[in-house]
Amino acid sequence: MNGTDTGFVLISAALVMLMTPGLALFYGGMVRSKSVLNMLMMSFISLGIVSVLWVLYGHSLAFSGDAGGFIGNLDMIGLKGVNADSTMENFAGEKISLFAFSLFQMLFAVITAALMSGALADRVKFSSWMVFIGAWVTVVYFPVAHWVWGGGWLSQLDPAVIDFAGGTAVHINAGIGALAAVLVVGKRVGFKKDPMRPHNLPLVLLGTGLLWFGWFGFNAGSELGVDGTTGLMAFNTQIATAAAMIGWLVYERIRHGAFTTLGACSGAVAGLVAITPSGGSVNAFGALLIGVVAGALCSWAVSLKYKLGYDDSLDVVGVHLVGGVIGTLMVGFLAIGGVGGGSQFLSQAIGAFSVMGYTFVVTYILALVIKKTIGFRATEDDEVSGIDQALHAETAYDFSGAAGSHMSGSTASTTPAKSSDAAKKVEA
């Protein structure tokens, strides 16, 4: 067992784990204050549900054997036969711990399910969401991960689909899945009528920073070892993200007249998404080009929900689906080492659109079954009053203590009589 490569994969897995609470903060700051806890929990619960399912059968379905190129088998159900000495070969032919690899891939599944939560913010029952993500990773994520990374049919194409760290399996998968679920669940009460601005932009910025930090593990860690490609991927992750942030802000300034904090954060995430499938196969110029194109096009794409009438609350479709498609397709022409070209672009297109078709149909059916059985959506009263209190019996912010000390303190009781009218106004 190569200790250096195994240690690197374990550190990368820890960075990927941090991305899920980072995503929770990113999304949480973007919603209204009355539903921020629900938004945080929709991401955070994925760490619990998907981790358990991964051990029970997820690893086996994604990475054990192959059944017709579509799915793995159940030979490793419950990680049967895996022990502390179990190894696998990474891309350099070095042996690494199988547990380290499984942990790394587990956390990919966790965040992919969590990504969809932003599209459904403010309006779904938490119990139904838990059922949905458990079923979704089973019938959507595990098969698609097998197609791309587990020896499935997309990896068998000639040339094989390039997806270094998850353009198809993670971002296109989550983005198109989010769109399907949104079409079933419907729009928020007051969509396009009431202001639905982010309640805490510093929280969004903090979440973006954690995502950016964790993404080095997500992307560079996908090499499963330490070599030149690892360094290339890490470097391209940084510069593509920077270029995308600038691209988004420039488009935003031209289109809307301002450089916004939310735009900077969304642009950074768009760059992270777009470089995910491509960063290990392009040079620095290619990474800059992918980043700036993703920033500008994703900024344009988020406005489509108002024109087309679907309520993607936090722009999962505009950022993750569109960014994932951009990165997946552009690497077809920009890949270095004589790989890029028409045949590679064709494979990339097959990968992108096959995942979009499969995931959309299956997710739509799954969401519809939940809607017709246990119900997917919170009641209108709960949505209007705030689903934090209704579904979690908690609120993110409690100002009652501060208000109480002001109104019941000694200042009012000792106010001079001649100032009583002013005091009454202050109390009011």
UniProtKB/TrEMBL annotation:
Gene3D superfamilies found in the cross-reference section: Ammonium transporter AmtB like domains
UniProt GO cellular component terms: plasma membrane
Pfam families given in the database record: Ammonium_transp
GO molecular function per UniProt: ammonium channel activity
Keyword annotations from UniProtKB, A to Z: Ammonia transport, Cell membrane, Membrane, Transmembrane, Transmembrane helix, Transport
Principal localisation: membrane
Similarity field: Belongs to the ammonia transporter channel (TC 1.A.11.2) family.
Protein purpose: Involved in the uptake of ammonium/ammonia (NH(4)(+)/NH(3)).
Protein name: Ammonium transporter
Organism, as annotated: Streptomyces sporangiiformans
Organismal lineage: Bacteria, Bacillati, Actinomycetota, Actinomycetes, Kitasatosporales
